Amino acid sequence: MTSMHNPAHPGLVLREYLGDLSVTTVAERLGVTRAALSRILNGHAGISSEMAVLLGEALGTSAEMWAIMQARYDLWQAKQKPHRKIDTFPELLHAA
Question: Domain 10-80 in CATH: superfamily?
Answer without folding.
Answer: lambda repressor-like DNA-binding domains (1.10.260.40)
